[in-house]
From TrEMBL:
The keyword Repeat applies. InterPro entries: NosD_dom, PbH1, Pectin_lyas_fold, Pectin_lyase_fold/virulence, SCF-Subunits/Alg-Epimerases. This is Periplasmic copper-binding protein NosD beta helix domain-containing protein. Pfam families: NosD. It comes from Streptomyces albospinus. Keywords: Repeat. It comes from the Bacteria. Residues 159-329 form the Periplasmic copper-binding protein NosD beta helix domain.
Length: 439
């Protein structure tokens, strides 16, 4: 009976007594503790390395010059204050936090000034080991695809990182939520190389990045819902890329997002020269774009094109509102690779290239319907600024009761959104700082 009681205990004070504050040693099996930094461990890395599954690593305000790698399952890493707990890479390390074990939650802190990623979640040993990143993702060579399964990134600020702010690569069954990214030299949030992804990206803000959100070879139960993607160079892309495995990309749902004014000059240059585009579909297929508000993008609201030898097939553009874009919807295929079965229904729009797409490409289409192509005068992207010079973010919403709530139990598979209940964002949300709500 005593053993059973001990196994159910959760200690919420410093883990001292008999183990030197390590959280290990003579602790009974099943007892979960809170390891406080720096009270119980001098660094975040020391606390994480001593933690057991189910433990909470709670970090006091301060600037921590370290790269934290989490290799133990079901640990929660949480800052006591989102804006005041800062993991600063000083441009001397590739990643701020690397999650390489399942069931890990990273919450309520800031990661900045890393040469590659703020937070990297991955099942790839090469990526976790700091393999140099390239524009568009990681080329892991002949490494077999291994998924990290189950993760949560929540209430994280990722700013001024040289590749991605928050990056889930070769990972499944995860959630990225309530986070803020800026100054991503490639993109603020990136999900790559997963099939099926079973991943939800929701209620985030991405601004002042080269691209707000990017999904490359991210297929199957991939949901991007209720995000604010405003003031980047490109708002959102979903694409296929030979640099990563699991081609082609297909089967994402992009719903209820605010995607606007993506021609911000004070941003890192986009590697492919993208500029002024709300949504780009580059060789992606069978994606659904539902009730997004796409406004004031100087080039185009939504563009469909092909990448290399991969055509865009079966994308559906449904019940979106387009206002103030250079072109609301444009389809262009400058090479021999063409699209087919792409269609529109129920959208509020004014201009398309080719003209009259809403009528000639209305859903549903007969099978194997070729997608027409056109051209328009696209603006030239201006020069950008180094990611290190992007404007610092203001205070962001805090994780509720960060210092008194226990460790977060990350579900093995997240609940997926019901798209029927996701509303079109209000035009009032175009105001600076307004956040999208999906429920």
């Amino acid at each position: 009976m005593v053993a059973a009681v001990l196994g159910a205990l959760t200690l919420v004070v410093g883990c001292t007594g008999g183990d030197g504050g390590s959280g290990k040693g003579r602790r009974p099996s099943g007892v979960r503790v809170t390891i406080r930094v720096p009270a119980d461990a001098p660094t975040i890395s020391a606390a994480v390395s001593s933690a057991r599954p189910g433990d909470l690593v709670l970090v006091a305000p301060g600037v921590y010059h370290e790269s934290v790698k989490i290799g133990t399952a079901r640990i929660t890493l949480r800052g006591a204050s989102r804006d005041k707990v800062v993991i600063d890479g000083r441009l001397q390390q590739p990643n701020g936090v690397v999650v390489a074990a399942p069931g890990v939650a990273v919450e309520n802190l800031t990661v900045e000034n890393n040469t590659q990623n703020g937070v990297l979640v991955t099942g790839s040993a090469k990526a976790a080991g700091g393999l140099p990143g390239h524009s568009g993702g990681y080329d892991t060579g002949d490494e077999p695809v291994t998924f990290l399964k189950s993760f949560l990134v929540s209430y994280v600020t990722a700013t001024r990182n040289g590749l991605y702010g928050i990056y889930a690569f070769s990972a499944q069954n995860g959630v990225i939520e309530h986070s803020y990214t800026s100054g991503g030299a490639d993109s603020g949030i990136y999900v790559g190389q997963c099939k099926p992804c079973h991943t939800v990206v929701r209620d985030n803000v991405a601004e002042l990045n080269a691209v707000g959100y990017e999904g490359t070879n991210a297929s199957g139960d991939m949901y991007v819902v209720g995000n604010r993607l405003v003031g980047n160079r490109v708002g959102l892309t979903t694409d296929s890329d030979h640099q990563e495995k699991l081609l082609p990309q297909r089967g994402a749902v992009i719903a209820g997002n605010l995607i606007a004014a993506n021609q911000q000059r004070a941003t890192p240059e986009q590697a492919d020269g993208g500029w002024g585009t709300g949504i780009g579909i580059d060789g992606g297929s069978d994606n659904r774009f539902i009730r997004n508000r796409i406004a004031d993008n100087s080039n185009a609201g939504l563009v469909i094109t092909a990448t290399a030898d991969m055509p865009p097939v079966g994308n559906q553009i449904l019940d979106n509102t387009f206002t103030g874009n250079g072109v609301d919807v444009g389809w262009t295929f400058p090479t021999a690779t063409r699209g087919r079965d792409n269609c529109l229904r129920g959208n509020d729009l004014r201009t398309t290239v080719p003209a009259r797409l809403a009528a000639t490409a209305a859903c549903p289409l007969p099978a194997k319907s070729p997608s027409p192509a056109g051209r328009w005068a696209m603006p030239t992207a201006p020069g950008g600024i180094p990611f290190t010079e992007v404007a610092a973010p203001g205070p962001q919403p805090q994780f509720p009761h960060a210092s008194t709530t226990g460790a977060t139990a990350v579900p093995a598979v997240p609940a997926l959104p019901d798209t029927a209940g996701i509303p079109l964002p209000s035009a009032s949300l175009l105001a600076a700082g307004a956040r999208v709500q999906t429920s």
